[in-house]
Amino acid sequence: MPTKAESEWMENITNIVGCIACRIDGHGYVPAAVHHVLSGQYRKGHLFSYPLCPEHHQEGKYGLCRHKNGHGFAGEYGSENELIELTKKWLATLKSM
Fold first, then answer.
1. How far apart are CA 80 and CA 4, in angstroms?
2. pLDDT, tens digit, for every residue of 19-47?
3. Which of 15, 38, 57, 81 could form a cystine bridge with 52, CB 3.0-4.6 A?
4. Domain range for 11
5. CA 38 – CA 27 distance, rounded (Å)
């Protein structure tokens, strides 16, 4: 069960930031779901997550997708740690507007 801080993080990144890959591509807000970063086969925790739309998360019909092409996705958009940090920056910027 997520803590209050974890729930707020996941709600904010999906509702305020939207897909981080779409933001990088210049598309602005695109609805997203939470992608949890793994350590081995286990989630690192809810705070180790970033937002991805279905296309960038699991579908990948028209481009790179995190689950189908993780190395290509990372080469295009950055490592998971970099994407978490970028999500934090976008969230801080958007919340201050």
1. 23
2. 999 999 999 999 999 999 998 889 999 99
3. 57
4. 4-95
5. 27
Average pLDDT of the chain is: 94
Domains identified in the chain, total number = 1
Q: Give the pLDDT confidence score for residue 62 in this predicted structure.
A: 67
CA dist 7 and 93 (Å) reads 20
- pLDDT for res 68: 87
Spatial separation of the C-alpha atoms in residues 62 and 89, rounded to whole Å: 27
Segment 53-82 shows an average pLDDT of: 89
Cβ neighbors of 32 (< 8 A, separation 6 or more) are 13, 14, 17, 18, 19, 20, 22, 51, 52, 53, 57
Length of the chain: 97
Helix residue ranges per DSSP H, 17-61: 20-24, 54
pLDDT at site 97: 86
Which CATH number belongs to the domain containing residue 60 in this structure?
3.30.40.190
